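Explain my protein.
***
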Amino acid sequence: MLKTLYIENIAVIEKTSIDFSRGLNVLTGETGAGKSIIIDAINAVLGQRTSKDIIRTGESSAFVSAQFEDVGPAVAAKLSELGFDLEDDVLIIQRSLSQSGKSACKINGRPATVSMLRALGSSLINIHGQHESYELFSADTHLGYIDSYGGTGLQLDAYRQAYSEFKVLQKKLREANSDESERLREIDLLQFQSKELFDADVRPGEEEALEAERAALLNYEKIASLLNKAKRMLEGEDTVGGAEAVDIAATAIRNAASYNPEYEALGNDLTDIYYNLRDCLEGIGDAIDDLESDPLRLEEIEERLDLLNRLTRKYDRPADELPALAEQMQARLEELLNYDRSRDELIDACSAAKEKALSLADELSRRRKEAAGVFAAKVREEMRFLNMPNVELIPQFQTTELTPDGVDKAELLISANPGETPRPVAKIASGGELSRMMLAIKTVLAATDDVGTLIFDEVDTGISGSAAEKVGLKLREVSRDSQVLCVTHQAQIAALANHHYLIDKRVEQGRTFTVVTPLDRDARINELARIIGGVNITRAALSHAEDMLREAES
């Protein structure tokens, strides 16, 4: 449940902290006092799209923090999926907004993204605003309610997986059935390109090896001169060479060692150097013997490198990747040449995938229809309690082609008065009827919903009197299983709250401030009297308010 909401610089709210409790929490206040701002702040911290215009005038940033307790296994699982831990069963989510349009988010003190808040928020709070009632006009939402009540999530996921596989195969089949001339053109091109690449027979590392060999041939004279110079320095011509000089030095040191053994190691080191130099000298000699100038070979290398450069430019691939490209072209070519066989296999696979999707859709449809009847009956009973005694609610199904949601188009048809034929909600429902129908749906779904907090923003739109009292009783009933926050203008609903908060707007030094205050019993009586009687609170209004509160407490 939502334990604490802290708001800073959101619209007319400078700073406020609200501690909510279990049960039914009601927020009341004058029109324009800022009740909707509380909902806007909650939406912001839940990761919903938020405009920078929500930031208080004159401030550069805004901040909202929400602390939740006893969040339950569903939220813990979602946190784990997002890479966060639940600490002592307490969850704190925060969001900062700036005038630049950027936002910073945190989950339990660790950086997060807006999308993470949004994914988590759907498991924490379910907000029913004034606009949501009008979603009942769209039959598309009705199927979602039925799925939620029927618990068809696993079946729907399995169907959507099968549907996705079918659509992929269907797309491939359409592509296979594309224009024959295009297929022949691609075959001709692939035959030419793959032959060109296979004929080139490019070998891994060939380009680097050829460039190294070309460099050796182009610099034959320089290499020969340098090798001969090294050989002369080591073996000498008219004078003693380096190798012989080291040998002479080694002999001298060994002779000295016969008089003083401490020179023996030095003599051995010089002897090793001498033999290493002899090996180097032999290696240089072999290199000179192998060195050759071959203009014909150089010409062959130049032609081969020119071919490789042309192919790499043409196909926009490094030379080492050209063999793999040739294999890919050959595979595609074989697919096109074996068009009929591949197409027949694709038709069979597509048909099998469609049958699987249809089978899963039929099972999903059966489950939905079973759930829809029970769901409609329960919603109907809730609506009858909410002062709609003659209401009838009939689920109507139509079979469609395969869609991401199955083969069902479902709509709840309503008749609010005796003798009327049930018709679409948009045809006959008034604002008050919409509000009560939505509350009835939320009440029925609350039993199957893992979300711990439900928020109703002015669910009393279009109703009054006993209907408003019935709505309040229903909200209190729902609050036994879930925490409920309700913004209302109706005294009948406010009187039934377990916890009552006043949203009050004040003007100080030319600036507007909104303050949220939890009310004690006496303050609740005054607020209920204000709602009943308006600006001038009479003794009769106070007496009526006290009676309402006493009756609600009994």
Remarks:
- The first helix runs from residue 35 to 45.
- The longest strand covers residues 392-403.
